[in-house]
Amino acid sequence: MAQLGALCISNLCATKPFFKELNLGNDDDFVIVDPKKIAGKFGAANFIHLINVPNFDDKDRFLKWAYTQLNR
To answer: Does residue 3 or residue 44 have the better pLDDT?
Structure first.
């Protein structure tokens, strides 16, 4: 169970600030809809679904996943 908590911290807690920086709108446009969904202005994407987020520390996999989320 402790590993699950560590996984949530490393993935979700690091992922949300990452996408907040990528939000093209103002701070009011960035909303955490639920634990697995972020709304904001990300170019063509208005929502980022945080399902199957790779480990944030695995930069190559994480950036490939983020690129896919932003360009779908």
So the answer is: 44
User: Which helix (H) or strand (E) is 41 found in, with range?
Assistant: strand 37-42
pTM of the model: 0.77
pLDDT digits (tens, 9 = 90+) for 2-41: 344 444 555 678 888 999 999 999 999 999 998 889 999 9
> Tokens 């907040």 belong to which residue?
20
CB atoms within 10 A of CB 66: 19
Close Cβ partners of 48 (under 8 Å, ≥ 6 residues apart):
19, 37, 38, 40, 42, 69, 70
Q: Cα separation of 59 and 21, whole Å? A: 16
